[in-house]
Amino acid sequence: MIALFALLPLVFAAPQSTPVADPARVKTAITELEKAWKSNDAAERVRAIQAQATVADAEVVKWIAKGLKDKQVDVQKASIEALRWINHPEALTALQNAAKDAKSYKEQPMVFAALLKGVGQYSNKSSVAVLTDDIWAVQEQHVVQARILGLGRIRTHESVEALIDLMKVAGTRKVENVMPDFRLALVALTGVDMGVSQLAWQQWWNDNKSKLKIAPAMGELPKELSVKWKVYWGEMNEEERPRKRSDRGKDAPESPEGPADGKTPPKREKKEGGN
């Protein structure tokens, strides 16, 4: 099963703007997914999800989303990754709906972190409420990190306000371990760097919230933060990857899917606030 997931970045390498799926291809995809779901073999379901993950069609998305409620964790993970990259509005809706049921994932924090990461990948303003809903209910660090960095992808004033509010509500002790993630998300959104001081960010917000304008696209980040951002979101280019094994992933946040494997998932076209 591990070998199957090693292929995920390659399987999901879809273009930024997926064209309307060919009807014949859609029919084949649905047939294969139906066949897999009639089987009790988790590996067969994973293979079917991976094989049809580039068919951006609402009915195909519906079938892939069935994997979110599968009893097998491997199937859940395959479904999350497929929906993350398929770039279809129904896929985002499926991820959002699943993420609202945080209680179901308390015993599977890494799966929940991957799910929230999939929500954040779409950079859609409708996800702000999902990512901020009872953020401290599951306090595992990867889960909180996925919420924070997901907000960092949603380029709206509301996202910045949400991040500042989350820091304020949680208090100094609870926020301390994830302040580097708050810093990264806020710098990505605002272009301002107040370090890892909660107080400094709150003071900056009080002074600037009424006049703050969020640029449509993220500006260039300082090298250290750029590496962290690109490693987490799988945006490292070949020439940017560390050459020495000992340097790989240094100072970078750990991904819910595990250490970065050096492979680059597909790039997503960013839109202001998401639509």
What does this structure look like?
There is one protein chain. The protein has 275 residues and is mainly α. It has 2 domains: 1-99; 121-267, no CATH class. It has 15 helices and no strands. It has helices at residues 2-6, 8-11, 23-38, 42-51, 58-65, 73-85, 89-99, 109-121, 128-132, 141-153, 157-170, 172-175, 179-190, 198-208, 223-233. α4 (42-51) packs parallel to α6 (73-85), α6 (73-85) runs parallel beside α8 and α7 runs antiparallel to α8. The protein is elongated, with a radius of gyration of 19 Å. The two termini are 36 Å apart. The relative contact order is 0.11. The model is unreliable at 1-16, 249-264 and 267-275 (pLDDT under 50).
User: Element order, helices and strands?
Assistant: HHHHHHHHHHHHHHH
β-strand percent reads under 5%
Number of separate strands: 0
Largest sheet, in brief, is: none
3D shape: elongated
Structural domains: how many: 2
Overall pLDDT: 85
Spans with pLDDT under 50 lasting ≥5 residues?
1-16, 249-264, 267-275
Reconstruct the topology from this structure.
Blueprint: H1 2-6, H2 8-11, H3 23-38, H4 42-51, H5 58-65, H6 73-85, H7 89-99, H8 109-121, H9 128-132, H10 141-153, H11 157-170, H12 172-175, H13 179-190, H14 198-208, H15 223-233
